[in-house]
Specification:
Shape: globular
Oligomer: single chain
Number of helices: 1
Radius of gyration: 13 Å
Number of strands: 3
Strand content: over 45%
Strand order of the largest sheet: 1-3-2
Largest sheet: 3 strands, mixed
Helix content: 10-25%
Order of helices and strands: EHEE
């Protein structure tokens, strides 16, 4: 990911922990479309990634 669509998205991404699950809306950016911009990010409450560290929960 290269950039955040706005400050709200940046705040959400700054606050998530390893293993947190997010629903994100992405769009391709850049000359070749090989980079991403997060337009929206919303934590999914109650879900934990299978790779999350157990002691962090």
């Amino acid at each position: 990911m290269v950039e955040c669509g706005d400050e709200d998205v940046k705040t959400v991404l700054d606050e998530v922990e390893r293993g947190d699950v997010l629903r994100m809306e992405l769009r391709r950016v850049g000359r070749r479309g090989n980079a991403w911009c997060a337009e929206n990010a919303t934590p999914v409450v109650g879900l934990v990634s299978p790779g999350a560290v157990a002691e962090n929960r």
